[in-house]
Amino acid sequence: MFSEKVVENLRNSSAIRAMFEEGAKLKQEFGAENVFDFSLGNPDPEPPPETLDALRRLALSGEKGLHGYMNNAGYADVRAKIAEQLNLQSGRSLTHNNIVMTCGAGGGLNVILKAILNPGEEVIIFSPFFVEYKFYAENYGGKIVVVPTDANTFLPGLEALEKSIGPQTKAVILNTPNNPTGVVYPEELLRDMETILLQKGGRYSTVIYLVSDEPYRDIVYDGVKTPSVLKIFRNSIVGYSFSKSLSLPGERIGYVASSDRIDDVATLNDALSFTNRTIGFVNAPSLFQRVVAQCLDVKVDINIYKERRDILYDHLVKLGFSCVKPQGAFYLFPKSPLGDTQEFKRLALKHKIILVPGAGFGCPEYFRLAYCTGIETIKNSLPAFTALAKDAGL
Amino acid sequence: MFSEKVVENLRNSSAIRAMFEEGAKLKQEFGAENVFDFSLGNPDPEPPPETLDALRRLALSGEKGLHGYMNNAGYADVRAKIAEQLNLQSGRSLTHNNIVMTCGAGGGLNVILKAILNPGEEVIIFSPFFVEYKFYAENYGGKIVVVPTDANTFLPGLEALEKSIGPQTKAVILNTPNNPTGVVYPEELLRDMETILLQKGGRYSTVIYLVSDEPYRDIVYDGVKTPSVLKIFRNSIVGYSFSKSLSLPGERIGYVASSDRIDDVATLNDALSFTNRTIGFVNAPSLFQRVVAQCLDVKVDINIYKERRDILYDHLVKLGFSCVKPQGAFYLFPKSPLGDTQEFKRLALKHKIILVPGAGFGCPEYFRLAYCTGIETIKNSLPAFTALAKDAGL
To answer: Going from the N-terminus, what domains does chain A have, and what CATH number goes with each?
Structure first.
């Protein structure tokens, strides 16, 4: 009666949502303060004061037309400011024409994939991967090809990448800092990756786009910098979101940026604006376009997340968990001591710890903890993790 | 190199946008005040005071979590208030489970069509039609079937509708008050339409959904009321937008409502929430969900539009144009005195009138005037229309 594909997808639905619901049940039974919910990537810090101030100023301004339509790609002046910032980071020469304001990075990735994909073309992703990529690519007839990463570093294997590229390869999706591992790919690795993309593209007379999903670009620790993809990759298209950097995930505001080095980029930019319109976004929310334009150099206090990472990571490693130390984002992706995580998940629930099994991310032997939750929750959860480790035989 | 379908669509791109650009050129040359731009459906009245107040209160509230994620379907309390309002209008028993908050009606229609369509299934629309329906249906493999309306009333012919329904028919898109004609379909007609949908569905053992695109539901004149689709159609799914009723088109806020009479509606509701997530909307903008919840009984002053309709309609009819009098929305759809509108469009440009040829709406002998533009523009345009009528031989 309904879309068969959607109903089938519903049946194997999001493990994250399932855990979220398990958590809700536990909270009702035991009280929210006694449940340690690490399921959702919903940043709990409030937006920075500068962002809230910008919102207040605009709301009080009485400015005419603040909530009206603009060009489907967004306000030209907002896009010009973003282009300028990206040029400083990348040394490129983008203009407002290379920027389309989007409903977050989730919207942005759909806008990009619809603009470039023909049915049957392949999109390479690295496992573990963000659950939604599969849906996004399939929305436009794309086929996902999964390339594994190194189990000790979660960095993509370049040989495996090279082997997975064929004449149907249209794009590689990059996500660094990574959800769910928190790993930041080093510049050297990205440069080698670019060499492969250009060589393979040359061999097949195709263009392989590097689609960079960057909601965590600004969430990095220990002095690490996220390398600029626009600087490194000739055929790069970036999907950025202010959801995490300004703690505005519900407002759906971000942008797509196309490299000025892409052949016939003017057509691509028209296509991005067209897909933004015809997927039904029409345009990114108008008020928040103006808000973020005033906050391009602002971000949430990263130390909030760093403190949580340190406490949780140190505790887990001390307990004997095997875990790569994240350099960015706000996730840990430890190995399950019991192999497949389904049994371990149930064990964790007994200790009122809500985690997400790794199967949905393509790595069933791992689990994800989102530490964008209150510091008190994290501190209070430590004895529960100690008890869980013991139960799991660590 | 890019999506072939998107590039092809770009080539035959939006006539509305083309006219908008013609207008921009003219304005640069002659000054904005000397150009009469009727191309865009961008409401010029500011949002009602209650809406701006609600926004200010929320922005100043300092409330925590105001900009965070919520359930993909939206805030449960906001959805419950909307369900309650719809129940009052329709006598149905919707709950928050029947409501998904969306990025306007454009987003809502995509969410609905992805949730119900299988590749090759047909979607019936009535000509003249809103340009985007074709793109929305094709996004999910749907095939558009166009059913003409009566040239004197712009009301759908029921016999033609009946003939166009086959075993592949999955949905009929209804748009009343209508863009571009401004016509409101009477309740009697809708009841007859429902009889046909149920009969044909019975014959083919299918369910034919009535997808109601309702951005103009509250923009009606002369005491006319928009009949409640939820009341009349068993298998109705509504896409509503606050863009026009609250003059918030840039903010992308609306909802989808499913009738509680639909078989297995729980699965449909899950599917709608899932497609809202996986098309990349994730959720409707959070702050404006809260704003509209405080303004469900508020709308812009309809007299602003009524005055414009009266002045422009009366003038055109006096000049000899053939035009159905709109009972809602803010468009006129007169017949071109020169047959095909391309030549007439060029003639209008000479008089600095920007109109949209009807070809894009499926009716090349007509043209659209959007009168959501300042009253001064409308008054100042009258002599230009007089001159145009003379040039066109009226």
So the answer is: 4-47+300-391 (3.90.1150.10), 63-293 (3.40.640.10)
